[in-house]
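Re: [help] complex structure
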Amino acid sequence: MKTFRRIMAVVLLILAILVVSYCVYTAGQVPPSETMEVIYESI
Amino acid sequence: MNRYRVANVILSVALSIVFGVVAIMEFSSSFQRALEALLDLFGSFKYYFCVLFGKSVEGLPSVTKYSNVMQWQVDLPATWEAFTLKASKYLDTYFSKDNFLSWLYSSGEIVYKVAMIITILLPCVLMLTMVIRSMYNQHNVKHNQDTIPLKVFKGISKITYQPIKRFVGQYIEYVREHRTIWIGWSVLWAFNLNFVSIIIAFFAFYFYFAVSFDFVGIYVQVVKLAIDLQVLFAHFPWWSMLPIAWLIFEKWRKGIAISRLNKMESANRGLINDLPIVSMTCGSMGKKKTTIITDMALSQEVMFRKVALDRMQRADMKFPNFGWIAFEMELRRCMEYGTVHNLATVKEWVNLKRRRYDLHQNNALQLYGYDSERYGLYYQDGLKTQYIFDVLETYAQLYFIYVIENSLIVANYSIRTDNELMDAGNFPLWQDDFFSDRERCSRHSHILDFDVLRLGKKVIENNPNAGSFEFGVVAITEVGKERGNNLELKEVKKGTEETNQKNDLFNSWLKMCRHSATVDNYPFVKVFTDEQRPSSWGADARDLCDIVHIVSSSEQSLALPFFTIEDMLNEWLFDRFMGLYESFRFNRGDNTLLVHLLKQLTAMVFRRHVRIYNVFGFSVSKIEKERGTMDGKAEKKKYYLMSKKIYSNRFSTDCFSDYFNDMAKKTNVGLNDYLEYATEKASIDEMKMQNSYFINSLYKRNEEETA
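Output below.
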């Protein structure tokens, strides 16, 4: 139980970091109100 | 401390000047914004009253418009319509495949950079570890001598870090003691960082919203809030706010933990309330049976006071115009002078007042100016009619139980309580929270003289304490050893001169104890006992109880949320350090710099970890409750043992250890002096040295046969 809880805590921490990073990245990709098109960084 | 006084004053003046200059140079716009918010508040106030009294208004108040003072640096649309459009664009981007791939690519770049750094650092760390290990494997016996690097480190620390730490520590204390300084600085920075403007703007919008119900306008206020907060983010880097964010997070999760612990305490109190007046907790050694009865006694003491307060409030409502405070003060004076010292004398005191009142009808003297003609002397509750002095008698007894400052627990072992009576000269209140951080004065349970619980013969003839027990919480550990069972008392006769378990009528007291303790139809008495087996206590007494069997006790858990990662880090650091430290202690007797630093770090983390577990830890005991007759079905229940409540020096788990200490002190022998067996097989002499009944009987029989 203790090991499972620890694994879950680490997995959830990583997931939280990824989700926040994706949200922040997406916000950076949305242009200011007057610009309509979305510009992506080079893939 | 005096040598710091001048430095403290100089530093305070210097900091005040710096803060003032910074306010003028850097935060002047914040003051203008505060002025603007005040004008907004005035406009909203005017608008509020105009609409309220039906007067005409000219347009909308200024609070609905954006600030003219603060520069717009926030990436938020100005209107609600523009915001919904942008939010829709954000969501489209959020769920787009291209955006996701782009994010993966950019995240991959960061991961690549981190991996590069690790690749470079890893060999260095490994090399360093190997060097340290080989250095620390060199044997020496220079006991408690510091190495040269450690001496240098301590020397530098002594003239740099230590004085600064001492000065900062005492300066924080100095500022705390001088309210004018920290209040002045707090107000100044509240203006600087726009917090004052935000509060004023909130009230400005509140007055406008109360009469306009302009829901769309809320968005403008949110944007204005973001613009006001930009001062904070513009002047301080985001990472400098991490400690403040951490403190807020800590406060939030500690609040959750305390709330969880209080819920557990409520669940325990529900279980205790379900128990009859006498209960017996059973479990084998180490199952925490004394811990549980101590925990129950502590909760019951608090509950008695709460019940007394609750019933006093009900009595108050029966005669709401009576001067209760004057009645309470006279009762307390009587308690101080010793006129009143138990429930019986309380009743006597009220009866005396009743007789005097019935004789002289003097409202001013006996009823503290109560206007009996106007408010009446009788209360009808739909069941019976109560005379005011009947209610006063109940109230006085309840007040007596409530206000007694010492412990309500009487036990055959010591239990520490730290409830505190807060008295500002009016009605006192109890501070009886088990999870408070504040250190409070300790009191201990009363010594249980068993003669006070005996209705028949007493151990001490004419014991002055006999018959004095009326109410309270009685805790008796190892009750079976005190009272015995039917088998053990087989040879004991009721008619002997000597006091014994059969002629002391203790069991009769158990059956009748509620009579002396009942006030307002509530029995203020509870008896908690413990023993290893239920059958160790005679059936006559045991049949009165509910028996609480402790089935199991869980490992310690934590009520504090989001602590698992810190828990893991602490365990990892502690184990790692101990691995190094153990071999270091074996090989070397001196003190080195690296071990000194690692030990400081580990000790700091370890101490915090221990404190967190002590304050927010709990364990769950699985219990089964059954009737004392032991012929019913056992109910499965849970009892929570919260560390902060029960393990803060509440009782000694080895409460009878002094008996054994006393015996051991009188001997000149210890474990070291016991003889050891010479080989794997005991010799005849060695067997005889056991003083065993079995071995002795074998050899006795042999000797008899030989003879």
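The interface with chain A takes residues 75, 77, 82, 85-86, 89-90, 92-94, 96, 98-103, 105-107, 564-565, 567-568 of chain B (CB under 8 Å).
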